[in-house]
Amino acid sequence: MKGWIDVGPLADIPKKGARVFTASGIPIAVFRTATDGIFALEDRCPHKNGPLSQGIVHGERVTCPLHDWVLELVSGEALAPDEGCVRTFEVAVGEDGHIRLRLDTPAMALAGE
Q1: Per-residue pLDDT of the chain (113 residues; tens, 9 = 90+)
Q2: Which of 31, 73, 88, 96 has the fewest CB neighbours in a 10 Å radius?
Q3: Which phi and psi angles does 10 have, rounded to 5°?
């Protein structure tokens, strides 16, 4: 998978949990749903920059731990009546069970936290 960064095994992220990585100073939360869906969002709520990685994952949504904003994991958009959006990143699970993350530009360096 050329252009993708290996961020570790799927098994390292608990169901309904998240793991945070930093790319070029941007925290990226990789989420795993109860049905093993994998999503990646910038780890900040558009409301008050709360850490989405510490939120509650339900279905394909995450609730921010600070003020209960709910965001779609697929699009990064807040559910009405709230408004706002966070950047999403493309992710995939390889045949080896490892999660791959595609960054916006080749210059973005990745570091695990």
Answers
A1: 556 888 999 999 999 999 999 877 889 999 999 999 999 999 999 999 999 999 999 999 999 999 999 999 999 999 999 999 999 999 999 999 999 988 764 445 555 54
A2: 96
A3: -55, -35
| Domains detected in the chain | 5-105 (2.102.10.10)
Q: Provide the pairing of β-strand 88-93 with 5-9.
A: unpaired
Of the candidates 40, 55, 52, 37, which has an alpha carbon nearest to the alpha carbon of residue 104? 40
CA distance 9 to 95: 11
Rounded to whole angstroms, the Cα distance separating 37 from 60 reads 8
CA distance 86 to 96: 29
Place of tokens 């080749």: 106
Residue pair 104/7 in contact by the 8 Å Cβ criterion: no
